[in-house]
Amino acid sequence: MRRPGEQLQIDFGERRVAIGGSQVKVYLFVATLGYSRRLHVRAYGHERQESWFDGIAFRAFGGRPREVLLDNARALILHHDRSSREIVLHPRLHAFSRHWGFRVLACAPYRARTKGKDERGVGYVKKNAIAGRCFASWAELEAHLAGWTREIADRRVHGTTGEPPIDRFARDEAAALQPLAGIPPFITARDLLRRVGADCAVEVDGNAYSVPWRLIGERVRVTIDRGSVRVLHGGREVAVHATLKGRHGRVVDDAHLTGVAGTKPRPVRPVEAANIETRPVLLRPLAEYEAVAGGSF
Question: Of 109, 197, 257, 278, which sits with the fewest C-beta atoms within 10 Å of its C-beta?
Fold first, then answer.
């Protein structure tokens, strides 16, 4: 049994989830405190490095553990020698761990069961929180996970400890975590180069973000950081969008299309009265004309 505040175990699990009427591959991040077994769950559209860093989210627990146990994910571990147990961390993970002040532990290759608490946590999330459910949007999925964690996962009686994780956390572990006060957020910005497509958009992680139409065919710099996608051209910011979750999404700023042929309705020219064809109007009933003419037409 881990001491309070000693260890956090983290892992990702994949699952197809019905979102907006389509089956979407969702990457479920699960973090488990080793002592209280309290969970933190997030959903992502990919398993990139910034997803790991965002998911660790010490702020969800209000403090930092002394060590983090993880698998040998390529985004985090460059090399792990089975015989010597030597671990080579990705430079950004090394910087991240120094920034927050925790020690990194990695499971032995092909022995992910050494972080069994989190492996079981991932399975628990898949079966209890996700299985058999569908969601109208990604935001609805995220809201469901937050509510499920708060109302179900935190309050269930854990099979090993015999206590609800939230009770064990509040009594023993919250005060044992290292404080967060005075530590600024870790910068996880990602820079990309993209060419603007004929649809006035750039592609990032399977989603499309609009830019001004005059930049079609131009190369632009794209920065992804803290939930925003910023597009720069010639050092000048030309577009900002909120990062989309999942894939195959599209976000369009109507201002980016202003001036494109076909984006505005054509003005309707009023028809002049002189051009309107006029027809004679019968001022009397037809029977009167027949009587004068001496018969019907």
Answer: 278
Q: How confident is the model at residue 226, as a pLDDT?
A: 76
Closest CA to 63 of 16, 23, 25, 31: 31
Domains and CATH numbers, the chain: 7-176 (3.30.420.10), 189-297 (no CATH)
From start to end of 134-206, where are the E strands?
A: 134-135, 190-195, 201-204
**Number of helices and strands (H, E) in the chain?**
6, 15
**And the tokens for 286?**
């037809």
- AA identity, residue 149: T
Q: What is the mean pLDDT of the chain?
A: 85
At 167-205, the pLDDT tens digits run: 999 999 999 999 998 888 887 778 899 999 999 999 998
- The pTM assigned to this predicted structure is 0.71
What is the distance between the alpha carbons of residues 49 and 188, in angstroms, rounded to a whole number?
9
> pLDDT tens across 209-259, in order?
999 999 999 999 999 887 899 999 998 999 999 988 878 889 999 999 987
- How far apart CA 74 and CA 280 sit, in angstroms, is 86
How far, in Å, are 121, 240, 263 from residue 255 at the CA level?
45, 12, 11
Query: Residue holding tokens 């990705």?
Result: 90
Beta bridge partners of 67: 7, 103
Spell out where the chain has E strands: 7-19, 22-33, 39-44, 67-70, 77-80, 87-89, 103-106, 134-135, 190-195, 201-204, 207-210, 219-225, 228-233, 236-242, 250-251
Identify residue 36 by its one-letter amino acid code: S
Strand partners, 135: 19
- DSSP annotation string for 15-80: EEEEETTEEEEEEEEEEEETTT--EEEEEES---HHHHHHHH-GGGTTSB-SEEEE---TTTEEEE
For the beta sheet containing 207-210, the strands, ordered from the edge strand earlier in sequence to the opposite edge, are 201-204, 207-210, 250-251
